[in-house]
């Protein structure tokens, strides 16, 4: 039986995906994902298996946050993060403002000359469709280029110099500026609409009206693509309202 698309988003219109970290060794001898930041979205890792770490760069400097089953880590906009496995690391990702990261909110730590050229950035960030060898090779090249730009940022922070990170953040903001109108529409249709719906329900309850409970229901879903190539690692994705859209 074919069921219609779910009419309601996940709580708060969050995005949801599952990650297993890339096992490819990078230039610094560390395996892991593609360092990047988000401009307006907070991201959270809920660790469901294995061990590892998330390396972050921010105003608080460089951090290596341990990840183990049951632990939770999250990073606010502007925080560069890099997922690093130290075992069979498995993470469930909760993403604020579903749809925005896939619309360009996430910016890789590519070298400055790539960030300065929107065409070069788009070409370096793009992946071919599917999950075959061509997509894997492109994802690995993308990861390696992001690490190339990330390592000088980390070295500068460790030396007490936050200037390069600040310049990267400015370059990322300039790169995405033209996309903000489209992001605003996604936000209005997702996270803002979810919050406004709660407000309307509170108003109704205060007035003695509980008609919205007539629409109560339960829903379920399963990943619709397994092992896609995400920024941090191999990603199981959902294509239902309120979840992270495939990259």
List the helices and strands and how they pair.
Elements: E1 15-21, E2 36-38, E3 43-49, E4 52-58, E5 61-67, E6 72-75, E7 80-85, E8 90-95, E9 106-108, H1 112-115, H2 118-125, H3 133-158, H4 163-176, H5 180-206, E10 225-229, E11 233-237
Antiparallel strand pairs: 1-8, 1-11, 2-9, 3-6, 3-8, 4-5, 4-7, 10-11
Could you give a short description of this structure?
By secondary structure, the chain is an alpha+beta fold.
Architecture overview:
With 247 residues, this protein is of the alpha+beta class. It is built from five helices and eleven strands, in the order E-E-E-E-E-E-E-E-E-H-H-H-H-H-E-E. The protein has helices at residues 112-115, 118-125, 133-158, 163-176, 180-206; strands spanning 15-21, 36-38, 43-49, 52-58, 61-67, 72-75, 80-85, 90-95, 106-108, 225-229, 233-237. Helix 3 (133-158) packs across helix 4 (163-176). The longest helix is centred in the C-terminal third of the chain and has 27 residues, at 180-206. It starts with 14 loop residues before the first strand and ends in a 10-residue tail after the last strand.
């Amino acid at each position: 039986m074919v069921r219609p698309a779910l009419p309601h988003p996940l709580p708060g219109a969050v995005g949801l995906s599952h990650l297993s970290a890339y096992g490819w060794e990078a230039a610094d001898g560390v395996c892991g994902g593609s360092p990047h930041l988000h401009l307006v979205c907070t991201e959270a890792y809920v660790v469901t298996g294995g061990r590892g770490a998330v390396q972050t760069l921010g105003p608080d400097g460089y951090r290596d946050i341990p990840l183990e089953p049951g632990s939770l880590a999250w990073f606010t906009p502007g925080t560069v993060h890099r997922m690093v496995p130290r075992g069979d690391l498995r993470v469930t990702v909760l993403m604020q403002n579903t749809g925005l990261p896939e619309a360009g909110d996430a910016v890789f730590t590519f070298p400055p000359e790539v960030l300065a050229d929107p065409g070069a950035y788009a070409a370096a960030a793009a992946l071919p469709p599917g999950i075959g060898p061509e997509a894997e090779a492109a994802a690995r090249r993308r990861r390696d280029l992001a690490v190339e730009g990330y390592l000088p940022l980390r070295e500068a922070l460790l030396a007490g110099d936050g200037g390069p990170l600040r310049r990267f953040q400015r370059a990322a903001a300039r790169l995405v500026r033209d996309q903000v109108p489209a992001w605003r529409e996604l936000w209005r249709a997702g996270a803002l609409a979810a919050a406004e719906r709660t407000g309307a329900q509170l108003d109704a309850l205060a007035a003695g009206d509980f008609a919205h409970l007539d629409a109560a229901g339960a829903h379920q879903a399963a990943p619709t693509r397994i092992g896609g190539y995400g920024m941090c690692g191999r990603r199981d994705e959902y294509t239902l309202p309120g979840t992270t859209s495939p990259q």
